[in-house]
Amino acid sequence: MNTYDPLLALLVFLGICLLGFLFFRPNNGWFWLINKGSQSTDKIIVEDILKRLYHNENAGKYLNINDIVRTLKQSDKMVIDSIDNMATLGLVRISGDVVKLTKSGSDYALRIIRAHRLWERYLADKTGFNKTEWHQRAERKEHELSMDETNLLAHKLGNPQFDPHGDPIPTITGKMAELKGVPVSELKTHTIGRIIHIKDKPDIIYKQIMAENIHIGSIIRVVEKSPERIVFHSEGEAFKLAPIMAGNITVSILEKNISYEEDILRLNILKENEKAKIIGISKEIRGESRRRLLDLGFVKGANVSIDLLNPLGEPKAYLIKGTSIALRNDQASKILIKK
């Protein structure tokens, strides 16, 4: 008995053709996407190794193969194969089990660091992403930006010298501005300084510092120092940090003849029935967020007071130039006042 069905055969043939098209379609087919994904993973591993080697060598430390394998979240085989490939390409040289950058490897690492820090600056200046998201987003984007795209981004941002954490951004030729400062953990009591850098690694310490609402650009005065804690005053608040946290904050020491103004406070400290004058907006708030506050009237010299309190704590409504404006405490903490 003949069971051949030409319609069924045609459907099967069309189905095979469709699968073949989906699998092998140029650029967007599954085969090409899988292949690109594999190449992308290899590229990310190589670039992450280069960055780690650069940062450690810059600090006077050389990594061995086991150090690199432990720090990357990839299979041991993939990492070791990548190191061998990097040696073949002349990006690193291997002495025993120690891996060192060559000049080509160092230049490549600087290009990745440049892309990372520029993208963090872009996120800070041009978007509304929270500062705790900048690093992770830049970690992904640094592998996607070409050299031309990175240079275009730098041009659009005005070729900034520092990222929002205060880290120097390499120029197109690999040069970086020198970061001159002292960790807060090394300051003597009564020292006055301006915060110029906050390390974003390790992540857990960075998040603790951010939770304390400590800002780059703020002027501080150390009032207490012990092996257990360091206390400094800044913008009307007292900050108590463990030395390991204070060591991740760098300040530029101010001259002794520069006075520390105890009466400059953050707007969120203002109490009901108190009046104040706007001194300025912290450098911590940038881009659209900064322009919005200025447009709302929070400009230097403007009078401000509390209009309405929220029984839940925030937001509070502030009276500025005859208009009631609601701000969260996080926003108000970046506006400086003098009562």
From TrEMBL:
Coiled coil: none annotated. Gene3D superfamilies: 2.30.30.90, Winged helix-like DNA-binding domain superfamily/Winged helix DNA-binding domain. Residues 182-253, 265-339 form the Ferrous iron transporter FeoA-like domain. SMART domains: FeoA, HTH_DTXR. Keywords: Iron, Membrane, Transmembrane, Transmembrane helix. The keyword Calcium does not apply. The keyword Acyltransferase does not apply. InterPro entries: DtxR_MntR_Metal-Reg (IPR050536), Fe-transptr_FeoA-like (IPR007167), Fe_dep_repressor (IPR001367), Fe_dep_repressor_sf (IPR036421), FeoA_core_dom (IPR038157), Iron_dep_repressor (IPR022689), Transcriptional_repressor_C (IPR008988), WH-like_DNA-bd_sf (IPR036388). This is DtxR family transcriptional regulator. The chain crosses the membrane at residues 6-24.
